[in-house]
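TEACHING EXERCISE
Course module: macromolecular assemblies
Task: Read the component lines below, then compare them to the predicted structure of the full complex.
Student: A.B.
Group: 4
Components provided:
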Amino acid sequence: KQYEFILTDRPDPAVGLITLNRPKALNALSSPLFLELNEALLAFDADDAIGAIVLTGSERAFAAGADIKEMKDKQFADAYKSRFLENWTTLTALRKPVIAAVSGYALGGGCELALSTDIILASPTATFGQPEINIGTIPGGGGSQRLAHAIGKSRTMELVLSGRNFSAQEAERWGVVSRVVGEGEGQVVKEAIDLARTIASKSQIAVQAAKEAVNAAFEQPLYEGLRTERRLFHMTFATKDQKEGMGAFAEKRKPTFTHE
Ligand code: HXC
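Instructor-supplied answer key:
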């Protein structure tokens, strides 16, 4: 399907790629862009052949935030009644893993969008930040919560209250991103696609159960999270993929997962 503000591609039969594509506005996340993004994410999530999704922007900007020009005259009543930003939860409800490949600016909503994905890979040029405080507002796409979980209270407070940006290297040191990849144009997207391909080669049911279990660590108290993990682990014994995976190990051959 052709979209106006994003591009979709299939760099591998099992990998869906979404590229934010509003270059003149540094991929500012306008409402029309976000509707398209959600539509594309849901379409890939529903496609049985896809095992993982990569989300990226341009070399200059992953996304420079929510669209300030679109928001600036908004009134409280509009924001409240239209449930402004509520559709940001679509991404977090997907079953399939989403990998963000971040180059350039990931600011405000752009940083929050990256934080909403499952894995972030960054190029050395990536710049993260929650600069909302500089324009008289605060993060609204989960930044204050997800950063606090990822990097602790003091750092989150400093960043969110001062609005200062942080580098790819800081993001890596603090564990916001899983790694900074080598230099070179397109390198981060290439690495993200490679990782997506690796994930897609596993049992999809096991991958989705593993994602659910890890997410439980952020959404549930420890006792509940441990129980969730154990139940999901037990559940895998009802799948053909577990029989195939363990059987293949015992027979010293490679498994062929059928996602059943
Ligand atoms: C709308 C934006 C934009 C944004 C950039 N542009 N960011 N438009 N919303 N968030 C537009 C600029 O207006 C400009 O359009 C064009 O993109 C290029 O940007 P420049 O500023 O000319 O580029 P540069 O000088 O290189 O500076 C890059 C920048 C700066 C440092 C990233 O653009 C910037 O500070 N942007 C805003 C960052 C920000 O505050 N983000 C948080 C937004 S609030 P024209 O037409 O002039 O060429 C937010 C709330 C989150 O995200 C709530 C939950 C979603």
